[in-house]
TrEMBL record:
Transmembrane segments: none annotated. Gene3D superfamilies: Signal recognition particle SRP54, nucleotide-binding domain. It comes from Asparagus officinalis (Garden asparagus). This is SRP54-type proteins GTP-binding domain-containing protein. One of its GO terms (biological process) is protein targeting. GO terms for cellular component: membrane. It comes from the Eukaryota. One of its GO terms (molecular function) is GTPase activity.
Length: 112
């Protein structure tokens, strides 16, 4: 008989990929949950769901290396803006309503 945890973890891996998590992060999440399930730490669907939420939240809130933009950087910088539809992401970037918070910040950095 095949282990149902392996099938479910593959389903979760695919769901994370479809949700725009990269393969490395998806595998890290799945491996962490699989380890806790096999160790008997997560025994119900609710506990697994709670652990999944915590794992994703920890990944999103942990500060990585070199997260601050630097003037004169030679490599291209990528800034990810996350938010709900209609939350003002585009306006915050380009100042469509006179705002342009990020544009303003980078222009001020360039002046200094």
């Amino acid at each position: 008989m095949q282990n149902p945890i392996l099938y479910k973890s593959f389903d979760l891996f695919q769901a994370l990929l479809v949700s725009d998590f990269g393969p490395r992060i998806s595998m890290k999440i799945v491996d962490s949950l699989r380890y806790d399930i096999l160790a008997g730490k997560l025994k119900s669907g609710a506990k697994i769901k709670e652990a999944l939420k915590k794992c994703v939240l920890d990944l999103l809130t942990s500060k990585g290396k070199k997260t601050e933009p630097h003037r004169g950087i030679r490599k291209t910088a990528v800034i990810i803006v996350v938010g709900a539809n209609g939350g003002g992401k585009t306006t915050s970037l380009d100042g469509g309503d006179g705002g342009g918070d990020l544009l303003y910040i980078f222009l001020k950095m360039d002046e200094g």
